[in-house]
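Notebook entry, cofactor series.
This is the third protein in the set we're modelling with a bound small molecule. For this one the ligand is thiamine diphosphate. I'm keeping the input format identical across the series so the outputs can be compared line by line later. Sequence and SMILES below, as received.
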Amino acid sequence: MSITRCNICLRLVKVNVNALRNYHSENVFGFKKKPKKVYQVPDEVQAARCNESNFYRLVTAYRQHGHKCSSIDPVQFSLNSSCLIPELDLKRYGLSINKEVTFSGIVNSEKRTGTVSDAEQLLKSIYCEHIAAEFLHLEDEEEIEWLSQEIEKLPRQTLDNDTKIKILTEMLKSESFDQFLGIKFGSLKRYGAEGAESMFPFFTEIFRLAAEDNLEQLVMAMPHRGRLNLLTGIFNFSPARMFSKIKGNPDFPAKYVASGDVLSHLIASTNLKYGDKSVHLSLLYNPSHLEAVNPVSMGKTRAKQMLSADGDYGPNNEFSDKILNIQVHGDAALSGQGVNQECLMLSKVPHFDVGGSIHLVVNNQVGFTTPAARGRSSRYCTDLGKIISAPVIHVNGDYPEEVLKVSKIAFEYQRKFRKDIFVDMNCYRLWGHNELDDPTFTNPALYNVIRSRKTVPQMYADKLIQEGVVSEHTCKQAVESYKSWLNDELKAAETYQPEDLYFKNNWDGYNQAQEAVTTWDTGVDTNLLTFVGSKSVEYPNDFNIHPTLLRTHITNRLTKISEGEKIDWSTAEALAFGTLLFQGYNVRISGQDVGRGTFCHRHVMMVDQKSNTTYVPLNHMHKDQSGFLEVANSILSEEAVLGYEYGYSVESPRNLAIWEAQFGDFFNGAQVIFDTFITSGEDKWLWQSGLTILLPHGYDGAGPEHSSARIERFLQLTDSKENKPDGDNVNMQVSQPSTPAQYFHLLRRQMVRNFRKPLIIITPKTLLRYPTCTSNFAEMAPGTHFKPVLG
Ligand SMILES: Cc1ncc(C[n+]2csc(CCOP(=O)(O)OP(=O)(O)O)c2C)c(N)n1
Ligand SMILES: [Mg+2]
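Returned structure with ligand:
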């Protein structure tokens, strides 16, 4: 049998997959292409590793598996108590303990050479004691090299006495604060820091480094545990104000209509001073729904970055050059709440990137009553971080100095690589979930250990006394003087009056809405409408436009604009966006595929058919234009993305944040954000938000799931009155406009008023192209406005 050879020659075309799958969006507002970094392990290091390849394999094994037999659990209740890790067995690597090996280039040590036994000892001290690092899962070689060098330096690092005393003082203050509250307010749930006091070295070190590095602002999200201790201990929150609240007094001056929130949600906005440097800290309000505040903090960070021309918004800098995001988690909530997965997946996406967040887990190894092993399926609560190649450093909270050292690495890693990193501080919880709860119903063995040990501050005080750094007398004095200050504050609480801290800075000139229906002229001069309308579909000469887009969308719009008639839904939207940009407001539209629009009607973002370059015509209307449209095509997430946009919206009233669900009925994946932030933020916290939510497509019919955006649920969520018409002071506005002009006015009204309210708009599908659902310029001209009812 003969085989016929095929003479067709396969032509292999070298294709850059990234180029195919990515937009080339240089200079699109809110996105700058990052320069490609080239990293090369030095030749001599590579040579050393080749020469000692077996030893190098052993070192790599410690870097990869050492954490499994580390001693990071302060209550020794761990799953890893027996340290038999086969991967660390010397036999695997053909090494005997007396063999001389080269350390240089292989493990970071002061010694250039040593025996395998020396190396084993060193590696154990680095990777298997009170710090356990996980970084070999990272994709980037430079990051791995950098982290191994930094972590391997740790055993040689010592802290100066001033730093040690600072750590001790903060921890003693925290412990005293818990004891003080325990005595003065016996029935209070304070969710104290007892057992987790080593969180203080994390914060003091990160904040100090941030100020030293000339960061301007820190935006922080954190849950209940230790929050009050931090507020009064280092965030300059007046204890008198806190005590006044505990006694049941209102949070806000009487002139405001607001209910306030529970104690464990209090916030700080303060300047932290370190020598002649300072950094501003904003600790965000959090709802009880654990972790829901994280995307909000990211969105607020991004808004601050935009306002201060940081990162993609600036000429020449990187994200978080000025503003840094910090997130604190509980161990159970971090692994249990899906919003964290969404946030991590957002972290490097264009238009959502904030330059990497620093995460601290206050890992007391229990969630309410649930022991760690029942609270997740992964080994560590931080394993989620691995999905974005984030390093994790676990540390034993009984060793505050080690906590401080790894915090420094976390900070420096974030600064160097602008990526997320996790510090997992393993600690314990002295009491039950709160101080009134008895933990021994469910965790008797653990609490036997906890009740028979010394507290972390006391252990550290003993250590420093033994080292001669402080005396017992100084420690006692520090505690006494702090308690005496707290006593003075308790007295001051009796006459404390809430300060008026609201509607300041970015919000200067804004106020709460009145109990009246006000009408705002949102009309626009016809010449400007014509200008904006034609600019909204203009593109550069060398731009390869999609032929269908040109034939339909662009041509039709130009005709309608020139006639000022038959203005359709998407044209009205473009006119609203463009005129707001013209007035200097920024507009950000976010959600899945929003640039094109789910129903292919919007096209605020055009894609060059040859180069994949994106273009946003509304950002090129005029050379002096000061407002810009950010088109944030999002990941397939509702909760984190909506939370993000809410956070963005509360930073400044001058930026219109719009979130569009792909189909209206998908909003319920973000129900937590609606319930705990959007509908209630002003009442709980006096946080106003003009966040505008587009929910297509109400009752247009597309099967059971897509035919309803469930408008009735939004109506139920309003505090609309039953006995009289609502004023502007309703908690949120819900509307279903039926003409393009109405939609135009609604969007513009969000920006021109002197207050902000969340707005839900049930948007259509069929009406987008329905011949009779059009408006004309006369309905958008000066003097026109949104009409609550058309008749
Ligand atoms: C989304 C959500 N579900 C449930 C709760 C009720 N809850 C409050 S605290 C808590 C335990 C949290 O454990 P962890 O995250 O480890 O923090 P810890 O209290 O141990 O500091 C639970 C389940 C909540 N607040 N939020
Ligand atoms: Mg916990």
